[in-house]
Design a protein that fits this description.
Radius of gyration: 16 Å
Structural class: alpha/beta
Distance between the termini: 16 Å
Number of strands: 9
CATH superfamily: P-loop containing nucleotide triphosphate hydrolases
Number of helices: 7
CATH architecture: 3-Layer(aba) Sandwich
CATH topology: Rossmann fold
Helix content: 25-40%
Order of helices and strands: EEEHEEHEHHHEHEHE
Mean pLDDT: 93
Strand content: 15-25%
Low-confidence stretches: none
CATH class: Alpha Beta
């Protein structure tokens, strides 16, 4: 996924020379203290933050050379934000299906995920009124919706109730069983170890 990745903000190296490899069909936990560069690494893989130097690939696609194709192959749940406050969950999913070019079966996939995360009853409510836990659940739904080759989850369990945690673990297991790559930066390492095959420890980038 990355070779000699460096991300610099001003005079600070948020990530410094990172070599990271995550195999297809495996889930890997990216762990480390606050400020170790976990979220920044996921943002680079998702094409949200540019690399200062180094090589970055997702599903075999060079993120720096072909960012649009790389984003098509990636599902990303950011640690904060990611939802349009005035849009409903169903509107989020409609837009995602259109942008991703999903087939006519997308409503079935959408309903399944909303049901798993107990968001069906809120599917017509704007997300600005969601609790933190509901927003986190919806962010995971959006990331997993199009069944991407690479699933990037930044603190997906933070503030989420046990049902939401179980739903996310199921999504991760299903992605792995389908041969997809999953990279998780967990708020609680113990939860990630229950569902991940490997872990990678970052120390100060």
């Amino acid at each position: 996924m990355t070779h000699a990745l460096t991300v610099r903000f001003g005079d600070v190296d948020a990530v410094n020379g990172l070599d990271l490899s995550v195999g297809a069909g495996r889930a890997t936990a990216l762990v480390g203290r606050n400020g170790a560069g976990k979220s920044t690494t996921l943002k680079v893989l998702a094409g949200v933050v540019p690399a200062t130097s180094g090589e970055v690939r997702v599903a075999g696609v060079d993120v720096r050379r072909d960012p649009i194709d790389a984003k098509r192959r990636t599902g990303y749940c950011p640690d904060v934000g990611g939802l349009v406050p005035r849009a409903t969950p169903w509107e989020h999913l409609q837009r995602a299906a259109r942008l991703r070019g999903m087939d006519a079966a997308w409503p079935m996939r959408a309903r399944d995920l909303l049901d798993r995360y107990e968001l069906t009853g809120a599917s017509d409510r704007v997300t600005s009124g969601f609790s933190h836990g509901m927003s986190r659940r919806m962010s995971v739904v959006l990331a997993a919706f199009h069944e991407p080759a690479v699933l990037l989850l930044d603190e997906p369990f933070d503030g989420v109730d046990p049902l939401g945690v179980d739903a996310s673990m199921t999504v991760v297991r299903e992605a792995g069983d389908a041969g997809r790559t999953v990279l998780i930066s967990p708020h609680l390492h113990e939860l990630a170890t229950d569902v991940c095959d490997d872990d990678v420890v970052l120390r100060g980038g």
